[in-house]
Amino acid sequence: MGEIGAVVECGYFFAGEGARYFGNTLPSANPDRLTYYIRESAGLALLITPFNNPLAAIAWKAFPALLCGNTVVLKSHEDVPYIGVALAEILKKAGLPDGVFSVVQGHGYNLGTALTGDKRFGLISFTGSVATGKIIEKAASEQKSRFVKLSIEAGGKNPMIVCDDADLERAASSAVSSAFVDAGQRCAALSEIFIFDAVYAEFRKLFLEHTMSLRVKYSTAGRACPIINERRMNQILSDVAGAIRSGAVLLTGGYRLSECHLKKGYFLAPTVLENVSPDSDFSKKEIFGPVVVLYAVRNFEEALKYASHSKYKLASAIHTQDINRAMEFARRHNAGVVQINGPTHGSEPHMPFGGAGLSGNGWREPGTAALDFYSNWKQVRVDAF
Fold first, then answer.
1. Domains of the chain in sequence order
2. Phi and psi (nearest 5°) for 307?
3. Active-site residue identified among 137, 187, 192, 365
4. In whole angstroms, what separates CA 17 from the centre of its chain?
5. Which of 17, 137, 153, 365 does the annotation list as catalytic?
6. Tens digit of each residue's pLDDT (9 = 90 or more) over 94-127
7. Percent composition of the chain: helix, strand, coil (DSSP 3-state, to 5)
8. 94 Cβ partners below 8 Å, 6+ apart?
9. Fewest CB within 10 A of the end CB: N or C in the chain?
């Protein structure tokens, strides 16, 4: 219901942007010339969306794409195929003409490859894994007759720094929310926490208390957080087991939940590790599950160094009462989203979201920044008659 509410707000936002579809008027060195810019549609848009937050992921792409006058072909993730169909039915009932919004179904390894190589698409927006993003990037680059406008958002390895002056209760609560929302299956979910030595033991105690108080229930009355499928569940468990074999200490979790009401689903206990090297493969890999690692650091410079070691550059957070330290982190840490005294995840319809490095290729969704991807600029010059 929270996701549906966010999608409704996103719809209202972009509906309002239809009345603010701004161009630009520019001064010219020629006194007898009027120069202005207008937006035009980019053509046929291919939208490829992930399994997590599936309706919101579609809305972030489809609403600005339609506002800009594009026709849309949507490929939902194969694990959530009916979300796109449901939205298409709603749009049809709302009066969208036939052929403007189409949904196709299939697995990425065959249908996705065919779609991304189709020369009819003028732009492709993809949210998903790095591996798939690289395949799409290669397919788009091999088109001989045109350049394809390509937006990629491909995950994160998101750090949080907890300083020695932080409100530790607030930091622990934010960290638990960041790490275990949707069982960690969000690109902006928290992956690693760098804690100053002076407060490590106290923060560790609070964080574990909050983590172990979570209740996983397969119902609307509880905190429902299944893993999307058995393959992903087994991969997460394998990654955790590998970290433990390499010397990591398991503080809690690390196993499949098998209580009677959960045994038919793919539920994992929220998992916390420590004694993991920041330079290990585990510290650099996106786990995409309910797994977080605690690291002790000496000071701000060491925390910033390790928080910046990942090739993912999506989201980050710092907890401190020092405004200078907070602003220094915001200035020096390379990420698409920097949060001060809050969780790593979360966005709003008007806020541009995305990252750099392995997290994305620079475009932003949603917000007005998305309009620059889904439309093309045309310069119009009018000389005196």
1. 2-154+360-383 (3.40.605.10), 158-340 (3.40.309.10)
2. -65, -20
3. 187
4. 23
5. 153
6. 999 999 999 999 887 778 778 888 888 989 999 9
7. 35, 25, 40
8. none
9. C
**Range 42-73 burial, b when 16+ CB lie within 10 A, else e:** bebbbbbbbbbbbbbbbbbbbbbbbbbebbbb
Q: Is 274 known to be catalytic?
A: no
Per-residue buried b or exposed e for 204-243, using 16+ beta carbons within 10 Å of the residue's own CB: bebbbebbeeeebebeeeeeebbbbeeebbeebbebbeeb
Cα–Cα distances in angstroms (integers) from residue 205 to residues 120, 173, 183, 208, 278, in the given order: 56, 12, 21, 5, 21
CA 307 → CA 70, 142, 277, distances in Å? Answer: 39, 36, 13
- Mean pLDDT value of segment 21-47: 92
Look up 192 and say whether it is catalytic: no
d(C-alpha 256, C-alpha 263), whole Å: 9
- pLDDT of 223 strictly over 80: no
Separation CA 144–CA 379 (nearest Å)? 26
Would you place residue 181 in the very low, low, confident or very high pLDDT band (cuts 50, 70, 90)? confident
Each residue's pLDDT tens digit, 302-338: 999 999 989 999 999 999 999 999 999 999 999 999 9
Q: Which token pair is 134?
A: 């690289």
Helix (H, G, I), strand (E, B) or coil at 119: coil
Residue closest to 242 by CA, chosen among 270, 268, 276, 267: 276
pLDDT tens-place string over residues 338-373: 999 999 987 788 889 999 999 999 899 999 999 999
Q: Look up residue 208 and give its two tokens.
A: 């574990």
Cα separation, 95 vs 83, in Å, equals 19
